[in-house]
Write a structure and sequence with these properties.
The complex is a heterodimer of chains A (316) and B (180). Chain A has helices at 16-29, 97-103, 114-122, 143-152, 161-164, 171-186, 206-215, 220-227, 229-243, 260-286, 296-315, and strands at 4-9, 33-39, 78-87, 106-111, 128-130, 155-159, 191-194. Chain A is built from eleven helices and seven strands. In chain A, helix 3 runs parallel beside helix 4, helix 7 (206-215) packs across helix 8 (220-227) and helix 8 packs parallel to helix 9 (229-243). With 316 residues, chain A is an alpha/beta fold. Chain A is globular and about 75 Å long. Chain A has one domain (4-243): Metal-dependent hydrolases (TIM Barrel), CATH 3.20.20. Chain A has a seven-stranded parallel sheet. Chain B has helices spanning 19-23, 28-32, 42-64, 90-99, 122-145, 153-172, and strands at 6-14, 70-75, 80-86, 112-119. A four-stranded antiparallel sheet of chain B has the order 2-3-1-4, with helices on both faces. In chain B, strand 2 and strand 3 form a beta hairpin. Chain B starts with 5 loop residues before the first strand and ends in an 8-residue tail after the last helix. The chains are: A alpha/beta (316), B alpha+beta (180). The interface between A and B is medium-sized, with 31 and 34 residues. Chain A: Belongs to the eukaryotic/archaeal RNase P protein component 3 family. Chain A: Keywords: tRNA processing. Chain A: Residues 55-73 have a biased composition (Low complexity).
């Protein structure tokens, strides 16, 4: 299953080849989708534009545009764009979130004060709360707002690179204390694990990260979820919010108008199947010597398998 | 008397490709799994890991791994090593490896220590190591052949084959056998 890293730090000054280095490393460690994180500064621009460089997309097989990259373009993960807004004052409620929504794939909030944290947990319409865990917070993470946020669909993000390369001596201790208390407050639910790696050396393999968080008190299944299913749900939900009609309905695929010939063919097939079924029935009626009588359980199994195959076809 | 339970960790050293190697047009996979050129010895490795554990976990960690941490196998050609430790404390050792960020020699290169497999027996670990080395070489060959603009690919593949021999002979060596 796909692995996600929804936070790769991207200050606008990052040179492209260093970014490519980080991305190829992320891909080789097993991450299939990453998000480049642009941390916005206050005050937010009036009409924001995403300043991300155009990278060779993961699907294109044409030769890489940047000659400096050694890796072939298919060695890149799928790339999303994300913005993180630092918030200190909850009273100024107009953050121009809708205008940002159209530009970035994912939005996240980085609350700096307790009020902003509460506000982000309880009211703001954003999918992610990303805290700077390497600093000391003058407040607890209380279970009530945290669980309310999780129930509302807001996810908390833990960025392990903050602990790997600490800025000052106490940063790692602060990170561990904050992470354990947040895990305790949410009981490990609704936690996304991402890197916030500033270079390729800030990345770690998924299982290493899971073990690390297991040492800090997050069960390993939940940590794995935080790398797989939960970020996926965030990405899909956000995508749906942007493409779909009012975030509810989306056109996945338009059915083809069946041509006349095709219709006949399918008719033939179905009639053949019917005949086959008849034959089987006859056999069953006739024969006690039938080699493999289909038991009820067997028939049920076959039916289930057929249904699963049909649904898979539909999905693909 | 009950046997002492152990865990074996298979660890890969990964070098994210930097600007110099990408200019030389080495395929990314080969660059990441390049051999360790520094003169890394098992003793230096154990010392560095113990220092990291002591930094993270203090005297408790240092004591927990004191008598039972050892390097069972170290291959600089494939940047792979196998560690053995007590089963009760393997997570502690693993997290310390996660926090290490450079080759533990003087002026070591920055790198990532990636734990590939954890197992209770050294035999499984050995099988996985051989299998991974083989797959890596096949993948690198495939990447090089699908990437015709790298002129050096032939040379690199030649080196790669040599490396495969090194791997095989090293894996067949006696030091891979279960230490009794």
């Amino acid at each position: 299953m796909a692995l996600y890293d929804l936070n790769i730090a991207w200050p606008p000054a990052t040179p492209t080849d260093r970014l490519l280095q980080t991305l190829t490393t992320a891909h080789s460690l097993g991450y299939t989708t990453v998000a480049l994180n642009h941390t916005l500064e206050l005050p937010f621009p009036a009409n924001p534009t995403a300043p991300f460089p155009s990278l060779p997309s993961s699907s294109s097989t044409s030769t890489s545009t940047s000659s400096s990259s050694s890796a072939s373009p298919k060695a890149l993960p799928h790339i999303l764009h994300r913005a993180t807004l630092p918030l200190a004052d909850p009273s100024a409620s107009n953050y121009r979130l809708p205008s940002l929504t159209s530009v970035y794939d994912i939005l996240a909030i980085r609350p700096l004060t307790e009020k902003a944290f509460q506000n982000a947990c309880l009211t703001l319409d954003i999918p992610l709360i990303s805290l700077d865990m390497a600093q000391h917070f003058p407040f607890y993470f209380r279970p009530k707002p945290c669980m309310a946020a999780v129930a509302r669909g807001v996810r908390f993000e833990l960025c392990y690179a903050q602990a790997l390369s600490p800025n000052d001596a106490r940063a790692r201790a602060h990170f561990i204390s904050n992470a354990t208390s947040l895990i305790r407050a949410t009981r490990g639910r609704g936690i996304i694990i991402s890197s916030e790696a500033k270079s390729a050396f800030g990345l770690r393999a998924p299982v290493d990260v899971v073990n690390l968080f297991n040492v800090w008190g997050l069960q390993s299944e939940k940590a794995m979820e935080g790398l797989r299913t939960i970020p996926r749900s965030v990405v899909v939900n956000e995508g749906l919010k942007r493409d779909g009609f009012r975030g509810v309905i989306n056109i996945v695929q338009v059915a083809k108008k069946p041509a006349a010939a095709e219709g006949e063919q399918t008719d033939d097939q179905s009639s053949a199947a019917e005949q086959g079924g008849k034959r089987k029935n006859q056999k069953r009626k006739n024969g006690a010597e039938d080699a493999q009588p289909v038991s009820k359980r067997g028939a049920k199994k076959m039916k289930l398998a057929a249904r699963a195959a049909a649904s898979e076809k539909k999905a693909s | 008397m009950v046997r002492i339970k152990e865990r074996y960790l298979l660890v890969n050293i990964i070098y994210p490709p930097d600007a110099a190697t990408s200019k030389a047009r080495v395929p990314g996979l080969v660059a990441q799994h390049q051999p360790t050129v520094a003169k890394l010895t098992p003793q230096a490795l154990v010392r560095a890991i113990k220092a990291e554990v002591a930094e993270l976990y203090g005297d408790f960690g240092a004591g927990a791994l004191e008598g039972n941490l050892s390097v069972k196998y170290l291959s600089l050609a494939t940047s792979t090593f196998i560690l053995r430790c007590n089963r009760a404390h393997y997570q502690l050792l693993w997290s310390a490896l996660t926090f290490m960020d450079r080759v533990p020699v003087k002026d070591g290169r920055p790198c990532i220590f990636r734990v590939v497999r954890v197992s209770g027996t050294i035999r499984k670990i050995e099988e996985v190591a051989v299998e991974r080395a083989r797959k890596l070489i096949l993948a690198a060959k495939a990447e090089a052949s699908s990437h015709p603009q790298s002129l050096l690919s032939v040379d690199i593949l030649g080196k790669d084959d040599a490396m495969l021999d090194v791997v095989d002979s090293a894996m067949g060596d006696e030091d891979m056998e279960d230490g009794r």
